[in-house]
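Example record

The entry below shows one chain as it appears in the dataset: sequence first, then C-alpha cells.
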Amino acid sequence: MYQELLGFLNQASTMQQSYKLKASPLSEKYLLELKFPGNGDNIADADRLRQALETQIGCPVSIPLELLREIPEKLRQNDWKVTVTIGYYWPPGWGLERLVAELVEVGPGSDRLGPFGLAVDLGSTTVGGYLWDLGSGKLLAADGVTNAQTRLGEDILTRIHYAATPQGLAELQQLAIMSINRIIDLVTKQANIVPQDITAGVISGNTTMVHLLLGLPTANICRNPYVPVVNAPGFFPAAMIGLDLHPRALVYLLPSVGSYVGGDILAGILASGMHRQKEVSLLADIGTNGEMVLGNREWLVVAAGAAGPALEGGVVACGMRAEPGAVCQVRIDPDTGKVTYRTIEDVPARGICGSGIVDAIAQALQAGIINQRGELREPLTSLVVVPAEESATGHPIELTAVDIQRLLRTKAAANAIMATLLESVGCTFADLKYFYAAGAFGDHLDIESAITIGLYPDLPRENIIRLGNSSGTGASLVLTDINKAQELEEISRRVTYLEMNNSQQFMAHFTAGLFFPHTDLDLFPTVKARLKH
C-alpha cells in the first residue's frame, strides 16, 4: 500500500504544481445582497434569491424542498445578505448547453471559505482521493486506501460473480461506499475541515466499479454482447449514494464507453492530452486489467484485456502488493551474477511487487541468467532475489520457472493489445510519438526494465511519460474546471472500442510476444544492442 499511496501523494504534488486552476468548478459560492421586500415589492423569498443568483451565473437555478423551508428564516436572520453555495449539473449526453445549477447551501454573508470538492479514483485495488479548494483551485490533501472489496475478490470477474445475488451486490456496494468514506475522513482531517464542507464530487472508475457503487446489476457486463446497465450515470446527491459529504453535494460519475472502457480510461485520455495532439500516441494503464488507448486529435481507439495480475504480484508465488517489505528494485551484476535489491521502507523482504518482478526479469535477461524464451540457465531452477537468511519469512524470495513464464505471458498479452491496436489502424510502433504510462504501477516501474522485457515500446526515453494516477488527475480536472467535463464527454463520443475476444490478430501478436522482449528484436533496437554484449 505504501508505494501505491506514495504514487498518489507524488501525483498530488504534481497536480498542485500544474493545475492551480480558477476556472468554473462544479461548485461555487456567491455573496448575495438582496433588496428588502416591501413598498409594493412582494416577490417571493425563494424567487428573489433565485433571480439574483441567476443574474450572476447565467443559468437556471433549482432549489431543493428542504432549502425552500429554510430560506425565509435565513434571509431575515442575515439581513438579506447571504452566501449561497451551488452545484452545477446537466442531463447526461446533453453537455453544457443544458447547464443547470442547484442550490446546495444558504449561509451567512461572512461564509467565504471554499467551496470544497473531492475527486475520487475508484480503482479495483486502490481508492484514491484528492481534496480541492474550489475557490482558489488549490489541492489541499490527497490519500489512498485499499479497496475494501478486495476481501471478496481480487479481480473484477470474481466480484461480478459475487454480485449475482442481491445480498452479494449489496455487500459489494457497501464496501465501495466504505472505502470512499474512509478517504473522505482522511483528507478532511488533513485539511482541517469537516466532510459536510465538501459540496461537489467527481468519481472516476471502470464500468464495473461504478455499477457496484450504485448497486446496479453487473451480470451482463461480462456476457456477450457485454451490455452494461448505463454508460453515463450522471449526477447524484451524495446522500443518495451514501457518501459522507454535504448531503446535497452533487456527485458526478464520469461516463464510460462500454463494459470494458470506463470513465477511468477517459479520464486518462483527458489527463494526457493525447486527444488534442497531431502525433499518434499510445496510453497504457496496466493494473488488474490492461487498457490501451491509441490515437490523436482525429481518432481514438481503445482495447482492454486481462494483462495485469502478474505485474501486481498476483500470480507469482512470492508476489505481493507494493507494501512495506516488498522488493521494489533489483540489480544484477552481469559479470558476477550478484543480486542486490531494495525493499519498500528498507525493511526485511516479505515478497516482491510488480516493479521488482519486472526489474528482476530485465536484469536476469541482460546478465544471461534467463534467455529470450524465459528459460533459466542450467542448472538453475529459480532466480533467487533474496536469500532465505535475509528475508523476513525465513524463506527465499525467488522467481521460479513457472513464475517467469506467467510473467512472460502477461507481458505478451499487454504487447499483443498494443500491436493489435496499431495494426487495426494501419500503424506500427515506428509511428508512435509518445507513450503514456498510466496508473500507480506505471508510475513506479523502471522504464528501462519495462522496455527490456518488451512491456513498453522502445521509444526515445523523453517520449515515455509517466502520468501517475491519470484517473484521479482526470477526475480532478473535471471537478475544478467545468469545461473539462464537456471535453471528457466529447472524448467519450469519439472513442472506438476494439474487441479483443476471439481476435485472430491478437492471438498472432500474443504468440509473437512470448519472447523477451519479442521475437522481432528489430522492434526493440536498444535492447537488441544490449543483448549482443
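Notes for this example: The first helix runs from residue 2 to 18. The first strand starts at residue 27 and ends at 33.
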